[in-house]
Amino acid sequence: MKTFAEFGLEAKVLQAITELGFEESTPIQDKSIPIALTGSDLIGQAQTGTGKTAAFGIPLINKIPVTEERIVALIMTPTRELAIQVAEEIGKLTRFKGLRSLPIYGGQEIGRQIRALKKKPQIIIGTPGRLLDHINRKTIRLDDVATVVLDEADEMLDMGFMDDITSILSLVPEARQTMLFSATMPPNIQKLAQQFLKNPEHVSVIPKQVTAPLIDQAYIEVHERQKFDALSRLLDMESPELAIIFGRTKRRVDELSEALQKRGYTADGLHGDLSQNQRDNVMRKFRDGSIDVLVATDVAARGLDVSGVTHVINFDLPQDPESYVHRIGRTGRAGKEGTAWSFVTPREIDHLHFIEKVTRQKISKKPLPSIAEAIEGKQRVTAERLIELVQNETINEYKAIAIQLLEQYDSVNLLASAIKLITGEKKDVNIELTPEDPIRAKKRRPDVRTNGRRFSGGPFGSGNRSGGGPRGRSDGNRGGYNRSGSGSSGGGYNRDRDRDGQGRGRGEGRSEVRRPRPE
Ligand SMILES: Nc1ncnc2c1ncn2[C@@H]1O[C@H](COP(=O)(O)OP(=O)(O)OP(=O)(O)O)[C@@H](O)[C@H]1O
Ligand SMILES: [Mg+2]
Q1: What predicted TM-score, i.e. pTM, was given to this entire model?
Q2: Which stretches are transmembrane (predicted)?
Q3: Nearest of 499, 480, 514, 482 to residue 249 by alpha carbon
Q4: Could you read off the pLDDT of 22-74 as tens digits, one per residue?
Q5: What is the position in ligand 1's atom list of the atom closest to the CA of 29?
Q6: CA proximity to 161, closest of 196, 204, 123, 137
Q7: Is 354 in the pocket of ligand 1 (CB under 6 A)?
Q8: ipTM exceeding cut-off 0.95 for this assembly
């Protein structure tokens, strides 16, 4: 790995990188930054949590003159939370250089954004719908944009943002640098690349598996009706620092977060039907640790970087392998380890195998945690908390009563009772969740691989600079499995993403966006 000083960056950009605590560049940064600095178009693929944001952010910031007063860089993200997060990271990277960057996303009062735009930001980070809204109001002009980044490019395409992106990019001068980034690059990304990029360089640092290497992956076979008890046992047994639990639908997320709260966990839910205020609050609470379980739809699957997330649990399996890769990638980031669990109902086993096949990753089967394991887990946490207190806190004011109690009672009994008290009995509330239909792995067509060899290598096809691994026939097939849901009771499969467009026949996030069928 290189040090950042070797890229020949401006001193103020280097200073910001140092301030962020980055000592060496990650592999994707290593390969992308020099290419991006030349101004060439770029397609960058690297595992989740490996620093793609800085890989495009650093060169983008480096090339903008501080005296610039026009919007010269545009970064698009599929969700609002991601726009906010990327804007924060860009903000940190421009701290010393003093550029102005601004997130533009739906759900936030437009007047406030218009006022912020008057401060002449050079860098806009936005979701497509709200960007178009500003373009139509003429509060954003793209005539001077010289750099465009599509973060989570494949997701933007899958969400049906192609039309929006086409409209937006038609307003950006041709002589621009365009970069696409994602951990997954399904073959259909070519469509996007052909249309919007000029002789792009492909940078891929996906080794054998597309899933991030430090994530321990396991699944538990469980019936739909057992899922909630399995979840509480798992949470007790594992005692995550922070956990994200993915549910299939908005209803599921609502029911699940409420159920967890009733059982005494500090949990809250995130999905596209909440107001942006509510969404911001939930994210803030999760980031500052005032809740330790975030229950979410796929709206939280892409890009979110919250330090301390030790566990991801797929309460419901995701519909497609990409989603699996991104969901579990919310843990095991920036060199840290993480654990991903998936609940699989008996009828979904085939679908799990499909995910394994496409991700080229074996997911090991583990038994349902027993009640004893759950209790043991909770007691372990209590003991750890006690030890921490003994070692680090002032407890003098409790000592008198401790001495008094010890004179009267046996020390082991006394401590055991204290542990029981702190551990707390699980609130035995009866929980009934509305069942979801299983995800069906439909028969796959033999091979629908596109002929774009540059992207071959399966749905996660690497550009193959350093990619590799076996290329099974079915690996090339994204088209044959069920992606538009099985019409389950209550909404079916719900691609919960942000489609913020206004006045274009779209509800503000209410719509149950269904993934277009690839056929
Ligand atoms: N060179 C570096 N050294 C140390 N930490 C880094 C470095 N580059 C990035 N990071 C940190 O790693 C974390 C993950 O980075 P980032 O969110 O950019 O990953 P990503 O590749 O975009 O992941 P995803 O595919 O999930 O979007 C962030 O917290 C970021 O600050
Ligand atoms: Mg990212």
Answers
A1: 0.86
A2: none
A3: 514
A4: 999 999 999 999 999 999 999 999 999 999 999 999 999 999 999 999 999 99
A5: 1
A6: 196
A7: no
A8: yes
Count helices and strands (H / E) in the chain. 17, 14
**Residue 332 Cα, ligand 1 centroid: separation in angstroms?**
11
Mutate to test the pocket of ligand 1, among 305, 307, 322, 327 (most ligand atoms within 8 A of CB): 305
Asked whether the beta carbons of 179 and 63 are under 8 A apart, the reply is no
Over the stretch 277-299, which tens digit does the pLDDT of each residue have? 999 999 999 999 999 999 999 99
CA-to-CA distance for 181 and 51, rounded, in angstroms? Answer: 11
Strand order in the sheet with 215-221: 267-270, 293-296, 242-246, 309-314, 338-344, 215-221, 364-365
Which residue reads 């209550």 in tokens? 490
Q: Is the CB of 48 under 6 A from ligand 1?
A: yes
The full DSSP string for 54-87 is HHHHHHHHHTS-TT--S--EEEE-SSHHHHHHHH
CB of 50 sitting under 6 A from ligand 1: yes
Check residue 427 and give its pLDDT: 66
Both tokens assigned to 450: 């596109």
Length in residues, the chain: 519
22 lines ligand 1 (CB under 6 A): yes
CA-46 nearest atom, ligand 1: 21
